[in-house]
Structure formats: structure tokens, C-alpha cells
């Protein structure tokens, strides 16, 4: 009996050692059959130092190449190789700590099926993206509004910078609405853990790259959402942050060494100036401040020259895509990264997932400035491999001035014409992501002076111009707000909370303008799904005349004529003036109103209107 008790005790101790709660491994798992089969494990103890960096792994197909110790003896890094013949299973890692030997499990799995077909499919000009801030869209599970032990316990919808309680279940509950609107891909601001003291609603101060925030529903809910999207033929976009972490990230609170983020003698903020990175007359000090300065006091700037930190970020991006079935990657604050590192990370992602899409946030001023950071046709010493960008130029120097400035040689809709004409700088203009607004920009409706007709022109341009259109949640129902002073651009979607009096999902309490704008988006976006000319066709535009801008999307099977009248007076349309594209067509059908027009006769478009016309022979 005594022997039996002793054996049970030993087994219990062994079990505790195998499942130790105070040691973490990053990445938390990997997969067999990956091209990325040389992995650097970062092992962290939360309470007990390692006495040596020597470890043991006795698992068929896994070889230890090198181990590393750090000034902080609670960390070890281990380079391993996973051979192609390795079978999935639990790898046992044996460690040496002050308290004795410890064994921990590190799982390797079989890959998910369908790389490039069922996931990592890429987001293309055939898609329509919706950007959602999860905390502000819909509260589907009130039980996770506050999570015990997390630093931010705010929950107050009256305060714009507190948490409001939206979650992934709320998104799942409203997928019928989203898909019915014509959306084919969802992009969320980061959903990884943001265990910061305040301002956690946006998600960009990540504190653990390997956990989905529990206030959104955690890993299981994110995977459930991914599965539901793919079952509907929709796609999921991951918002990756290469540039910084949150100040409560364990790699900042308890770093392996002091050089994992950029350190300055005193707090130094980035100058937010991308120009020194390519300026032939620029200074090294300005360049260093741009790339190494901190984005914010609560966002330590990642030192991408540190090979361990670089590996941590690259492996996490690959892990996230494989783990959750991601189809596209949006890269935050792209211009602030070390660009050689960014190229390396982009290549690692594209090597593993050849069909995936990657687009960067290039919030700069000037088409050439933007083109420098993407695949381009410019002869410069540095060549970016970034396939695509969020096209802020067509927003700042395009559709906004087109609808807010008087027409002139340089002003009004001519700015949109000039900006799009500069597409010769880019390798992939059809992959640019178009937008009217987002979580950092004022709502388009507010910029338009709350003019619903101008908002409708904006949407018709967004859904017919070259590139990939991106909707910011709620703009289809005329949500408004500026960034300062109230931050209303991040307000809650009406109807996402049970107590809401207005419900944009059902139409309850909505105005006629809100309903008609929502219906316009729904009708045009769903028309676009079957419009080859818009999705993949060519573009041709005519020089604007007196506020009238005409452009065509066309291919061998379809021609779409887009007529934008930005002036305050009606304009005559003579179809014969555009005979390079109208020749041979007898009629035109307004996609929104379904009204038919004869192309053999002149017609008149009212002031501040846009027509999307499908031509027929």
C-alpha cells in the first residue's frame, strides 16, 4: 500500500512538472509540413531562473541547433529544426531551473487544409472590405464585458475612450447584415490581448501576441468567427503591428535584455516624418528619430535589429495566419518600421502563404512618398516588397477635395484626376485599398458637411474606382464624427446594444437619408460582386471639365460608365464625347435607379450627383 502511494505521488509530481504553469513557450505551438521549419523558441519563466541554457528535446524529427541565455536569466532562446518527416504530437522540453529539472509540453500540429484555397486566399479587387472596431460594433456577450484581473475595468458607453463591450460574438450575430451589405472580407483593429490600464478600445498596444483578448471572446471565439466567415465564402484580415508593443507587454515589463525595444537617454517620440527615409538631402538623425522614436509613451518601439525580437514578430505573424485561417494582412504604422526588417517579414509570410495579400498603412502626403513604401517603378536604392497599401492619397488628395473644393486647374475634382493619374509609380494599383474613412480619420459624412448626396457620391466612387474598396463600419448609415475633441469617429454602431433606440441592422429609428445611403451601398456592392469590369477590368478617365469627371471600368464583356458631377449646377452629358468607350453602345442603365438612358441623345445630370451606368449594345 505504501509503495502504491509513493508511485502515485511520483506520477502526480511528474504531471505537475509536465504541465508547469509558470513557464511559457513562444510560439505556443507550431505545425509539421511548414516551409518555415527552423523555429526560434523563446522560453520564459515567470518565477524561477534558469540555471543553464542547456535543454533537452528527445522527439523524432526535431533537432536543437543552438541555445541562448540572456542577462535576465528567466529567459532562454532555442533554435530548432523540424524535419519534414516529423509527426504531430506533444514535444517534451526538459529545462534546468534553480528548483530543479522541469518538463513542459510544446505541441506541434498537422497544418490546416487548403492553404491558398480555404484560407490565406488573398484579398483582391474583387472583394469589399469592412473595417470594424470590435469594441464598438455589437455586444453579443455581456459576460465578457469586464474580465477579472485585467487592468482596464472601464465600461461606460458615454465615455468615448472607455471600453463599450463589443465583442466577436456581436460580429457573428450580425454576419447576415454584413454579408447582405455586399461585404466579402472583414478587417478588425487588433484583437490580441491589450492588458493596458486605459485606452484599450482600439487594440494597438498589444501585451501578448499569442492571446486573443478575452473581452472579445478569446481564441475560441476568434476561430469560430473565422470558420463562419469561410463557410459563407468570406475572408478574414489580420491587423499586424510590427512597429511597437504596449508598455504592459511582458517583453517590456520583464525583458530578456534591455535592447528588445529602442532605448533613448530620455523619452523620444518619433518625428512622424517619413521624408528622411528617402530624402537625398536628409540627415541620419532625422531618419533615426523617425524609425526608432516611440509612437507614444505607452507604446515602446520595437528594436527590429535585435534578431530575437525580429524572430518573435515574424514567427507570430506566420503563427497567427495558420492558427486562425487568415486571408490577408494589414500592417499598421508601416513607415515607422525598419524597412529591411519589413521586407524580411513580408517575404517570410509570402513564402509560407503564396496567395495571401499584404497591405500597409502608409499614412503619408504625396503619391511618390507613398509609392516608395510599396512595390513600385521608381529607381531607388531601397526597393520595397510590400505588395499593396492603404491608398490615403486618393482620399487626402482625391475624393475629399473633389467634393469639398471649388473646381479649378489644381482644385476640386481635378485633384482626384491628378492623383489617380500617378498610378504609373505603382506596380499594383489594382491592389491599393481605397477608403473614405477609418478609425484614425474623420467620418466622411462629417467632412462633407453632413451632406448625404456627397456621401453617396463618395460611396459610388469607392465601389467603382480601381482597387479594393474598404468600408468603415457605420459609414453606410451616415455615422459622423471628428477625431478631436470628442473622438466620435469611433462611436458605437447603432443597434449593436440591446438598449439602443436606433437600430441600423433592422432600420428602426433611421432617417430617410440613412436608409437610402445604406440601400445604395447594399445595391452597388452586390452589383459589384458580378461586375467583372469593376472587379478586374481596366480603367480609363477623361480630363474633368467644369466639375464633371467621367471615367470607365471595362473589359471584353462589360463596360461601366461613371459620371461624377461635383459642381453646383446640372451638366449636359453628350455620350459622343466619350466615344473611345461609348462607341457601339445604344443605351445605359443606371445601376442604382435602374433608369435607362439612350446614348444617342444628350442628357442632363443634376448638381452634386453621380451616376453608375452599365452600357448595353
From TrEMBL:
It holds the Pfam family Alpha-amylase. One of its GO terms (biological process) is carbohydrate metabolic process. The keyword Flavoprotein does not apply. It comes from the Bacteria. InterPro entries: Cyc-maltodext_N, Cyclo-malto-dextrinase_C, GH, GH13_cat_dom, Glyco_hydro_b, Ig-like_fold, Ig_E-set. One of its GO terms (molecular function) is hydrolase activity, acting on glycosyl bonds. Keywords: Glycosidase, Hydrolase, Signal. Gene3D superfamilies: Glycosidases, Golgi alpha-mannosidase II, Immunoglobulins. Residues 1-20 form the signal peptide. Residues 131-528 form the Glycosyl hydrolase family 13 catalytic domain. This is Glycosidase. It comes from Flavobacterium nitrogenifigens.
Amino acid at each position: 500500500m505504501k509503495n502504491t502511494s509513493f508511485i502515485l505521488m511520483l506520477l502526480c509530481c511528474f504531471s505537475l512538472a509536465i504541465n508547469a504553469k509558470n513557464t511559457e513557450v513562444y510560439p505556443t505551438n507550431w505545425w509539421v509540413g511548414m516551409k518555415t521549419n527552423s523555429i526560434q523558441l523563446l522560453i520564459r519563466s515567470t518565477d524561477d531562473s534558469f540555471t543553464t541554457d542547456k535543454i533537452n528535446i528527445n522527439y523524432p524529427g526535431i533537432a536543437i541547433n543552438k541555445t541562448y541565455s540572456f542577462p535576465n536569466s528567466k529567459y532562454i532562446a532555442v533554435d530548432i529544426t523540424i524535419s519534414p518527416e516529423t509527426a504531430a504530437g506533444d514535444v517534451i522540453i526538459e529545462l534546468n531551473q534553480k528548483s530543479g529539472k522541469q518538463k513542459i509540453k510544446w505541441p506541434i500540429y498537422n497544418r490546416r487544409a487548403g492553404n491558398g484555397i480555404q484560407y490565406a486566399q488573398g484579398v483582391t479587387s474583387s472583394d469589399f472590405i469592412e473595417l470594424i472596431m470590435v469594441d464598438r460594433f455589437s455586444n453579443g456577450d455581456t459576460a465578457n464585458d469586464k474580465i477579472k484581473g485585467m487592468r482596464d475595468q472601464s465600461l461606460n458607453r458615454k465615455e468615448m475612450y472607455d471600453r463599450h463591450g463589443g465583442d466577436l460574438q456581436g460580429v457573428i450575430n450580425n454576419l447576415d447584415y454584413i454579408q447582405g451589405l455586399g461585404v466579402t472580407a472583414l478587417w478588425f483593429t487588433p484583437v490580441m490581448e491589450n492588458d493596458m490600464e486605459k485606452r484599450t478600445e482600439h487594440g494597438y498596444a498589444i501585451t501578448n501576441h499569442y492571446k486573443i483578448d478575452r473581452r472579445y471572446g478569446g481564441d475560441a471565439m476568434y476561430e469560430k468567427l473565422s470558420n463562419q466567415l469561410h463557410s459563407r465564402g468570406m475572408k478574414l484580415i489580420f491587423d499586424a503591428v510590427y512597429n511597437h508593443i504596449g508598455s504592459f507587454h511582458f517583453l517590456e515589463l520583464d525583458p530578456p535584455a534591455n535592447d528588445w525595444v529602442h532605448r533613448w537617454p530620455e523619452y523620444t517620440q518619433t518625428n512622424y516624418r517619413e521624408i528622411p527615409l528617402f530624402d537625398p538631402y536628409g540627415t541620419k538623425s532625422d531618419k533615426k528619430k523617425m524609425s526608432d522614436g516611440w509612437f507614444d509613451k505607452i507604446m515602446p518601439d520595437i528594436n527590429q535589429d535585435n534578431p530575437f525580437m525580429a524572430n518573435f514578430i515574424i514567427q507570430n505573424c506566420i503563427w497567427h495566419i495558420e492558427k486562425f485561417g487568415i486571408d490577408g494582412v494589414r500592417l499598421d504604422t508601416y513607415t515607422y518600421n525598419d524597412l529591411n526588417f519589413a521586407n524580411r517579414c513580408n517575404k517570410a509570410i509570402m513564402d509560407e502563404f503564396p496567395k495571401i495579400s499584404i497591405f500597409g498603412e502608409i499614412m503619408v502626403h504625396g503619391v511618390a512618398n507613398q509609392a516608395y513604401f510599396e512595390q513600385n517603378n521608381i529607381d531607388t536604392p531601397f526597393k520595397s516588397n510590400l505588395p499593396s497599401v492603404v491608398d490615403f492619397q486618393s482620399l487626402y488628395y482625391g475624393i475629399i477635395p473633389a467634393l469639398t473644393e471649388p473646381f479649378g486647374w489644381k482644385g476640386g475634382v481635378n485633384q482626384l484626376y491628378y492623383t489617380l493619374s500617378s498610378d504609373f509609380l505603382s506596380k499594383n494599383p489594382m491592389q491599393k485599398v481605397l477608403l473614405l474613412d477609418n478609425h484614425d480619420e474623420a467620418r466622411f459624412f462629417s467632412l462633407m458637411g453632413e451632406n448625404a448626396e456627397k456621401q453617396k457620391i463618395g460611396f459610388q466612387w469607392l465601389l467603382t474606382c480601381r482597387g479594393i474598396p474598404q468600408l468603415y463600419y457605420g459609414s453606410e448609415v451616415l455615422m459622423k464624427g471628428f477625431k478631436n475633441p470628442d473622438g466620435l469617429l469611433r462611436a458605437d454602431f447603432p443597434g449593436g446594444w440591446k438598449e439602443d433606440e436606433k437600430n441600423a441592422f433592422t432600420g428602426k429609428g433611421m432617417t430617410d437619408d440613412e436608409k437610402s445611403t445604406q440601400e445604395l451601398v447594399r445595391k452597388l456592392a452586390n452589383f459589384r460582386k458580378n461586375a467583372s469590369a469593376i472587379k478586374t477590368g481596366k480603367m480609363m478617365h477623361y480630363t474633368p471639365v467644369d466639375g464633371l469627371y467621367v471615367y470607365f471600368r471595362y473589359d471584353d464583356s462589360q463596360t461601366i460608365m461613371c459620371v461624377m458631377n461635383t459642381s453646383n449646377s446640372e451638366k449636359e452629358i453628350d455620350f459622343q464625347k466619350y466615344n473611345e468607350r461609348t462607341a457601339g453602345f445604344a443605351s445605359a442603365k443606371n445601376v442604382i435607379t435602374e433608369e435607362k438612358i439612350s446614348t444617342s441623345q444628350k442628357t442632363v445630370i443634376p448638381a452634386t450627383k453621380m451616376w453608375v451606368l452599365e452600357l448595353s449594345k
